[in-house]
Amino acid sequence: MTVLAMELTMRKRWEGWAVGLGNQVLWGFFIYQKQAWGLIPLSAILTVQYSRGMLKWRKEGRLEDSTSK
After folding, report:
1. The pTM is what?
2. Alpha carbon distance 29, 52 (integer Å)
3. Which of 8, 25, 46, 54 could form a disulfide with 16 if both were Cys (CB 3.0 to 4.6 A apart)?
4. Is residue 69 part of a domain?
């Protein structure tokens, strides 16, 4: 899903940010299930980055632009 999120984002599709955020939920389950607590900082950083990207995208009005194409 990370690769899909990157691909969509590179293609300037807002769905890339959404897939990236959704992927972090899955990583959260993985981290909990496997007790891989060392991955929490990475997941937290990615969550912040995907959230900032989505908010910036929306602020610049790209979210609406990309759905009209």
Report:
1. 0.74
2. 22
3. 8
4. no
Q: Is residue 10 part of a domain?
A: yes
Per-residue three-class SS string for the chain = CHHHHHHHHHCCCCHHHHHHHHHHHHHHHHHHHHCCHHHHHHHHHHHHHHHHHHHHHHHCCHHHHHHCC
Give how many domains the chain has, as a whole number.
1
Residue 44 lies in a domain: yes
Which residue range(s) make up the domain with 41? 2-64
* Distance, CA of 37 to CA of 43 (rounded, Å): 10
Per residue in 1-42, pLDDT (tens digit) is 989 998 998 898 888 989 999 999 999 999 999 999 999 999
Considering the domain boundaries, does residue 15 fall inside one? Answer: yes
pLDDT cut 70: percent of the chain above it: 88
